[in-house]
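So, can you check?
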Amino acid sequence: MGKEKAIVKISSTSLERVSKQISIVDKILLRRQIRISPTRNTPEVILDRNGIIKIRGRSIPERAFPIFIPIEDWVSGYILNPAEVTCVDINLEFLNGASKKFLVHIMQKITYVSLRHKKFIFNWYYEEGDIEILEIGEDLASILDVPFNFIKLK
């Protein structure tokens, strides 16, 4: 008995939809700067191809995946052609476990700029007396095994 080949048919509508999605991702990755506005539970995020990444506010979303995946995708594209110095400023009031996990992934990717002989700087801001946020930053520095600048705000 002969083997039958599987034939996958893709409708022109499906193909157009996929092409549009790819086009949107390409546009996001090629934009000079992306700014994601904060909400009550999500941080303001600035992603700039000049080497500036800022995350500020609260990061306690019920579902972190939809918020952080576009950021992680942008960083994945950015590290292919990074600026000479990438400066990451993180100034969070609160963050939950899911946000911490995504931050680790994103920051780990950023360290890869050193493979292209570029530099990175991680600045972790915390309010004076906010030991919990300071300790989260220290934990991240330990997990990533890279230096952080801890900057106390008054």
Summary: Residues 5-11 have pLDDT under 50 and may be disordered. The beta strands are 33-36, 44-48, 52-59, 85-95, 119-127, 149-153. The chain has four helices and six strands.
